[in-house]
């Protein structure tokens, strides 16, 4: 039978190995959550850029009256060129502008009449705009879910005691008025 001190050392080493494995697992999980946040942010940025591009395309299509085109083009341009601090406000403004444009009385009928009744170009643009607006909604929800998971993981005691997050900044939620226009 081995000496008692040897058994104590083996149990201590096994305990340290298990603690090390757990800490490593938590660090890896936190890193994966941060990668998920970055990936979701890239998808959100792509969806926002696509929505503003479609809005600019609609504004430049000559299907809308000049005042409406100017309002829509201005909001889309501001959304594309906004800095990080003003991005949420600019995107919310674009959402409101899109709803105002599409929410005009008899918008679809007016759009079809402007094209001589065929409406193929306008209908295609509206379908593309609707798809782009829906993608923004889903991308923002996915991003905010990823941020919530990362923030929850960073609140754990172990992550705070041992700085497992390193120097990674705490991710922020992206809050905009993204209600889709009723097309």
From TrEMBL:
Recorded hits in InterPro entries, A to Z, give: LemA-like_dom_sf
Query: What's the superkingdom here?
Result: Bacteria
Q: Which UniProt keywords apply?
A: Membrane, Transmembrane, Transmembrane helix
Report TM segments: 6-25
UniProt-recorded name of the protein: LemA family protein
The upper taxonomy is:
Bacteria, Bacillati, Actinomycetota, Actinomycetes, Streptosporangiales
């Amino acid at each position: 039978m081995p000496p008692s001190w040897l058994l104590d050392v083996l149990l201590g080493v096994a305990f340290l190995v298990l603690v090390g494995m757990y800490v490593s697992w938590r660090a890896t999980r936190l890193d994966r959550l941060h990668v998920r946040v970055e990936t979701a942010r890239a998808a959100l940025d792509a969806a926002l850029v696509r929505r503003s591009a479609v809005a600019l395309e609609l504004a430049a299509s000559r299907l809308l009256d000049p005042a409406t085109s100017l309002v829509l083009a201005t909001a889309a341009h501001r959304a594309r060129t906004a800095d990080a601090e003003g991005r949420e406000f600019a995107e919310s403004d674009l959402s409101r502008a899109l709803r105002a444009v599409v929410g005009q009385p008899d918008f679809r009928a007016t759009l079809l009449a402007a094209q001589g009744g065929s409406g193929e170009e306008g209908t295609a643009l509206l379908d593309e705009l609707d798809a782009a607006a829906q993608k923004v909604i889903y991308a923002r929800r996915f991003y905010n879910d990823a941020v919530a998971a990362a923030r929850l993981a960073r609140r754990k005691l172990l992550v705070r005691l041992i700085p497992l997050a390193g120097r990674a900044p705490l991710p922020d939620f992206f809050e905009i008025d993204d209600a889709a226009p009723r097309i």
